[in-house]
């Protein structure tokens, strides 16, 4: 197993395509996963992917992608590529257009295509890695489970753009666009280490969801959701109580679902409020059920920049003894990215100092998929995850 990470700073898609062709003309990877600035022409990138013999896809990331390796430290890569070289493993990429069917069916179809393309249609992979359209991630995960069950870990992130305007996209050899469901199935010849977490801590404030419908929360504690949340956060959204965008305001104070782990500890799956409607309902980036308990969480720039190192270290610690880490695919929420601002550079420098030349690559996403230690795959917000590959 060998990992190579690459940063391509060409602004024009034809130049990127030419560079991809040159980079892989002799050394053929087993899998290529790429993340790039949403302003790239993803349709034109398709030519570069079609020239690759390896399974591959490229997905958009908020303000570019992150890359930290022996030669590059950059949180704004125009295009970053994570290349797996593993002659003894098997890999496949599958996709489906969710605008042509329901999200559940798109998830099932994309995953079955990936299994077929890996040559392992009836064998469970070690990992499913995905890039999903924002909006119905829970249904897509259910579609995945209908094919492979609930025991296979599913990691990845939802596509993102630079302005939350829907200008996200994923491109594969077959299709591209904002509704593309894409999965890679991995059968690596060496073990993987996995970690999924957040950089937030719980407060003493709890809410009961007393009225909700999907991703709209109308009432908390039997009162208007926006009013209750605003009071609990010391008037954080006072100007948007009956209408307005609150995505940036609430990145420091999301809602958390407590998840009891087998070891007796509690982890929190985060839910990010992004807007308030004219009736005072909170609109969020993940589904909420009536009757469940939510905890007001708090985070800081310091906690969000330090969490990445901890998540990677946790994944490394879960590798079998004497296995050397050789590369990291990391997901970092775009909301956290926007909150920390230029401090993201401090985070990457800290990662370089801690992990030296270990290549780390990933996107800034509008939703994160992963699995806690209780073994259940979930979709959350403002989360960080890491998949560590080993030698």
Separation of the first and last Cα atoms = 5 Å
Query: Number of helical runs?
Result: 8
Low-confidence runs of at least 5 consecutive residues: none
Strands, total number: 28
Task: Write a structural description.
The strands form four sheets. Strands 14, 15, 16, 17, 18, 19, 20, 21 and 22 form a nine-stranded antiparallel β-sheet that branches. Strands 4, 5, 13, 23, 24, 25 and 28 form a seven-stranded mixed β-sheet that branches. It is globular and about 65 Å long. It is 23% helix and 39% strand. Helix 6 (301-317) packs parallel to helix 8. With 391 residues, it is α+β, with helices and mostly antiparallel strands.
Features of the shown structure:
391 residues; globular; alpha+beta; seven-stranded mixed beta sheet; nine-stranded antiparallel beta sheet; 23% helix
What's a concise summary of this model?
This protein is an alpha+beta fold and 391 residues long. 23% of the residues lie in helices and 39% in strands.
How are the secondary structure elements laid out?
Blueprint: E1 2-8, H1 13-23, E2 31-37, H2 42-50, E3 56-61, E4 65-68, E5 73-77, E6 79-85, E7 90-97, H3 103-117, E8 127-132, H4 137-148, E9 154-158, E10 170-171, E11 176-177, E12 180-187, E13 192-198, E14 201-213, E15 216-220, E16 223-224, H5 225-232, E17 244-245, E18 255-260, E19 266-271, E20 273-276, E21 282-284, E22 293-298, H6 301-317, E23 325-333, H7 334-340, H8 344-355, E24 360-362, E25 364-365, E26 368-371, E27 377-380, E28 383-390
Parallel strand pairs: 2-3, 8-9, 23-24, 23-25
Antiparallel strand pairs: 1-6, 2-6, 3-10, 4-5, 4-24, 7-12, 8-12, 9-26, 10-11, 13-28, 14-15, 14-22, 15-16, 15-21, 17-20, 18-19, 18-22, 20-21, 23-28, 26-27
Helix pairs in contact: 1-2, 3-4, 6-8
């Amino acid at each position: 197993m060998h990992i190579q990470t690459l940063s391509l700073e060409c602004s024009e898609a034809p130049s990127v395509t030419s560079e991809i062709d040159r980079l892989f003309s002799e050394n053929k990877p087993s899998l290529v996963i790429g993340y790039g600035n949403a302003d790239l022409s993803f349709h034109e990138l398709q030519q570069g992917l079609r020239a690759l013999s390896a399974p591959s896809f490229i997905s958009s990331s908020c303000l570019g992608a992150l890359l930290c390796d022996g030669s590059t430290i950059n949180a704004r890569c125009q295009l970053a590529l994570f290349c797996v070289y593993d002659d003894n493993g098997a890999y496949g990429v599958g996709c489906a257009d969710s605008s042509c069917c329901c999200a559940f069916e798109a998830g099932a179809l994309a995953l079955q295509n990936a299994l077929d393309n890996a040559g392992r249609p009836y064998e469970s992979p070690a990992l499913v890695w995905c890039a999903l359209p924002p909006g119905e991630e829970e249904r897509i995960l259910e579609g995945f489970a209908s094919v492979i069950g609930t025991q296979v870990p599913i990691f990845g992130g939802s596509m993102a753009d630079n302005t939350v305007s829907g200008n996200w996209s994923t491109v594969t050899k077959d299709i591209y666009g904002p509704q593309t469901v894409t999965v890679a199935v991995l059968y690596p010849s060496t073990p993987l280490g996995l970690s999924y977490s957040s950089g937030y801590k719980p407060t003493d404030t709890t809410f009961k969801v007393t009225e909700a419908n999907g991703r709209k929360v109308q009432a908390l504690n039997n009162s208007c959701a926006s009013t209750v949340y605003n009071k609990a956060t010391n008037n954080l959204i006072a100007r948007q109580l009956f209408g307005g965008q609150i995505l940036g305001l609430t990145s420091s104070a999301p809602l958390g679902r407590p998840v009891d782990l087998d070891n007796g500890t509690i982890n929190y799956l985060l839910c990010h409020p992004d807007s308030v409607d004219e009736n005072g309902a909170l609109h969020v980036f993940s589904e909420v059920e009536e009757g469940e308990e939510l905890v007001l969480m708090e985070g800081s720039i310091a906690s969000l920049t330090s969490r990445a190192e901890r998540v990677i270290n946790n994944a490394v610690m879960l590798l079998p003894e004497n296995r050397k880490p050789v590369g990291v695919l990391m997901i970092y929420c775009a909301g956290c990215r926007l909150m920390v601002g230029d401090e993201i550079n401090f985070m990457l420098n800290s990662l370089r100092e801690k992990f030296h030349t270990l290549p780390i690559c990933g996107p800034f996403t509008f939703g994160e998929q992963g699995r806690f230690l209780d073994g259940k795959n979930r979709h959350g917000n403002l989360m960080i995850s890491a998949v560590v590959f080993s030698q």
